[in-house]
Amino acid sequence: MTRFPPNDIISLVSTTPRYDLAESVGPDIRLGELLEPAQRAHLLDLPLGYGTPAGDPRLRELIAALHEVDPDDVVVTVGGMHALFLLAFVLCDRDDEVVTTAPVFPLARNTLQAVGARVHDLPVTFERGYQPDLTELRARLTARTKIVSLASPQNPSGVAIPLTTLRDILSLMTEVCPDAYLLVDETYREATYGLDPAAPSAVELGPKAVSIASLSKCHGAPGLRIGWAITRNPALREQLVTAKFNTVISCSLLDEALGLQVLQRRDAILRDRRHRLAAGLEKTAAWVLENREFVEWVRPDAGALCCIRLKPSRFDESSVQSFFAALTAHGVRVGNGAWFGDEARVFRVGFGHLCLDDFQTALGHMTLALRTALAPASQQ
Prior knowledge:
It is a single chain. Helices cover 39% and strands 16% of the residues. It is an alpha/beta fold and 380 residues long. A hairpin with a 6-residue loop joins strand 9 (295-298) and strand 10 (305-310). Helix 3 (57-67) runs parallel beside helix 9 (253-264), helix 10 runs parallel beside helix 12 (356-374) and helix 11 packs across helix 12 (356-374). The chain starts with 18 loop residues before the first strand and ends in a 6-residue tail after the last helix.
């Protein structure tokens, strides 16, 4: 009966503490920011009928132009998770094999398990800077492998996998499992810092590479539930469109119309958010430096998130739990590493959601939590 295992990460869309550092997004864009009077009049006249299974042609044209592909290579989905599910459903029969990382965004792993695939975990560890080891990957590939599912930048670490590494991974797959596809979740790819350029998309690697992304993270519009899959394989694209039609028929026309407005304002939206992310990253780096006696981190390449670890030399299992309890007492929530299959002493910090003043206050509470966790019991 249990298709999807429970995970406390579901709390991110339920209760909200005073200082939520578990969020991996920037502030939500507001509807009024998108709609000038002319656009509002247009939406009032929008018929609420069915959309097309592939997605609004204008929306697909914009997404395609940003990735230098043909609009027919793009399938619009109900968020990025829908794209991940459709790909797992289409490509995997029961007992087929897939490879994904550990840690990983748990829902990405759960979709693979839900279709009956055998999931092999590829460790990407804090010590290795969350980069995959190709020797370990090679040991997990077999002739039954149908999908290698990665994220770049990753969730929870924000670490990107270089395009050269992805190309090497495809070469391994061609050797061992030539029918398999490389899925790359690029949801955070454009959430860079300040003037940093975005990394190239994996779609340029050819027809065996599939790119997945959405408007949720970089653009601040998770409530629209607009994502996409890009594939240069016509047969796979046709299967995705058919699978989408047989599950949700189409996306909401209203969501697609608003998604079009978001992408038409993409440059301004991303520019403002990239400066905000750069400021949040700078404050995070300063906090880690100030508390280097207690914590260490892996600096992210993009996204509003990073992984910080309580130093094993200072924190035993009991003091790790005391740290999280102290955070809760201060009204601060972080992303527990256990949510993602990481060690308990690692936690994800989101530095783009709160305003900078509140974020600085939350960091101060985190410092107090460090000291509370290490204080003798008599002083707590």
